[in-house]
Amino acid sequence: MRRHCGIALLLVVLLGATAATLDRLLPPDLSRYRAIGIEVLDREGRVLSVLPAAEGMWRLRTDAADVPPHLVAMLLAAEDRRFRRHPGVDPLALARAAVQWARAGRVVSGGSTITMQVARLLDPRPRTLRSKAVEILRAVQLEVRFSKDEILGMWLTLAPQGGNLEGLRAGSLAWFGRAPATLDAAESALLVALARRPEALRPDRHAVAARYARDSVLLSRAVGAGDVNPQERAAALVTDVPRQRQPMPRLAPHLARDLARGATPGSRITTTLDRDLQRAAERLAEDAVRALPDRAALALVIAETETRQVRALVGGAFGDIPRAGSLDLTRAVRSPGSALKPFIYALAFEEGIVRPDSVLADLPLRFGGYAPENFDRSFAGRITAADALRQSLNLPAVALLNELGALRFAGFLKAAGTPPRLPAGAEPSLPLALGGAGMTLRSMVSLYAMLGDAGRAAPLLVVPGEIERQPVLAPRAASQAAALLVQPFPAGGRAGVAWKTGTSWAGRDAWAFGLDARHVAGVWIGRPDGTPLPGATGRALALPVLARSFALLPAAPREPALVRAAPTQPAESTDRLRLLFPMPGALLTEGGPVTIRAAGGRRPLSFLVDGRPLEVERARREAAWTPPGPGFYRITVLDADGVAARAELRVR
């Protein structure tokens, strides 16, 4: 007897060892489960863009936590009620299927568990008894290797959803235009039903059959009241099925492709972008491109000034106008034209070469063999540095760069993380002031962010991360240069925005950059192949798009933000800048002009109401203003050093 028990035990051990060896030698093929697409998400985890798996299949990783509980309940009720209890094979279901087959002479139900279905989805085979045997063995293997939730995740990832859709995440995006976590009962039931006969039940082709199959899932007695309450079920039964497939999410396609390059299949990459702002920016860009000259393209970047996190990025392709193809024009190296001038002035302010009220000469002048001219080929004569920058005059900028030294300025740009791209073997020279070097839209936006961040430089971020902001420019100099650029947009729009345009030679590149208290933005317009756009300018083409971009953003809490960074004079100073009238919180009665008065500070003073400058004589410390009507207004006065004083008042 003992001998027989020993032999039996030995046989069990041998069978177990044989099974373990076969399992190691013939493991389940998980290649289809691992060959899944990549998702790019916005800052809140919302889907921006998805990239397909191999061979164009929309197969996206879907875990049990990605779908609502009632969907899992419907799935188990419809496909495998004892999923949580069996070892991969349900003998009762197989026996029932065999009896039904014997009675009907055909397959009535397959008796497959969810685990067996996963085995078939991993390795599709013809529907034969031999294939069924293989599925059973593979199902046991899967149960040994993976948890129930992991197996459920495999089913949710691989279940067919019609056409080139696999998995319930892809099905949810294609049929309902959103991720599966928010699916209601009717939508969940349709996806569960689709997995059974994906082609015969496609709602865009067979809506009646799809609705009937969906209702069968909803009415299953195994779906308890705790999963779908009677009210939800009743509402779901009268809901129609979708009649067409939605396009897969494709926002920020250039950035998505860039981030997906080299990423692990199935990755979900979180970015700093805001989905709603990105969608609005792409719509704005598409509308703008339609009005541009032939073959002209547009790129746009919007970022937060302090964090440097990019909130919207448009690389250059828009719907049915793919003028840039797959090129990401935010990375294209192009001439910035006059867009670098604010940084020449800021550096000159820092080094004490000039002040905003210093008088410069805008007169014909040669610098060796270099004789720059203004855009309109005229000269302004004697003009303040502030006005020379606002008017973007060429001679004063080149003269300042001559005093600073082109090498010094190029070193400053390099320290800011945005070195100018020069031809091979070339050294920085005076044409740098007028765009004689290459820059990208991204690098220019990061430069302008520095003006609004007290002269601290940092790169733009498209994925969350920490940044180290390096001081490369004195805060007062950065604030002075930025404050001089605060001016209304020519065609109206948001107040309190500092902006500057640039145009490269022959109109090849039209630029506009702006910043307020929170955001910095940049626009580039040109032809991807670098051919000229005759007559194009940054002011005419790019600036209107910049103004519309700021209209998409929330109003800044106070303006101009750029002045916020300016260090104020010590409180004990007897000559500090201050507003004498109106006092903070003043209440005025509507009717007639108001005289705004200031004291202290260094002249000339600039007066602004809600960010819009008032006309004032340079030597005066007061300005006349007529309130346009009742409401709240913000009064700001700036002195020549960029120091600000402000007050809020109400007119009734």
Task: Describe the model.
The chain is an alpha+beta fold and 652 residues long. The chain folds into three domains: 28-34 and 53-237, Penicillin binding protein transpeptidase fold (Orthogonal Bundle); 337-556, Beta-lactamase (3-Layer(aba) Sandwich), CATH 3.40.710.10; 568-651, Sandwich (Immunoglobulin-like), CATH 2.60.40.10. Helix content is 35%, strand content 15%. The chain has a five-stranded antiparallel β-sheet, with helices on both faces. A five-stranded mixed β-sheet has the order 16-22-21-18-19, with no helix packed on it. Strands 2-1-5 form a three-stranded mixed β-sheet, covered by helices on one side. Mean pLDDT is 87; it is low at 8-19 and 560-574.
Given this structure, which CATH class of the largest domain is correct? Alpha Beta
Radius of gyration: 34 Å
By DSSP (H or I, 4+ residues per run), the number of helices equals: 21
With strands numbered from the N-terminus, the spatial order across the biggest sheet is 7-6-14-13-12
Q: Give the CATH topology of the largest domain.
A: Beta-lactamase
Uncertain parts: 8-19, 560-574
Q: Look at the structure and give the mean pLDDT.
A: 87
Strand content: 15-25%
Termini separation comes to 108 Å
How many domains? 3
What would you call the shape?
Answer: elongated
Structural class: alpha+beta
Strand segment count: 22
Largest sheet: 5 strands, antiparallel
CATH superfamily of the largest domain: DD-peptidase/beta-lactamase superfamily
Q: Give the CATH architecture of the largest domain.
A: 3-Layer(aba) Sandwich
Query: Roughly what percent helix?
Result: 25-40%
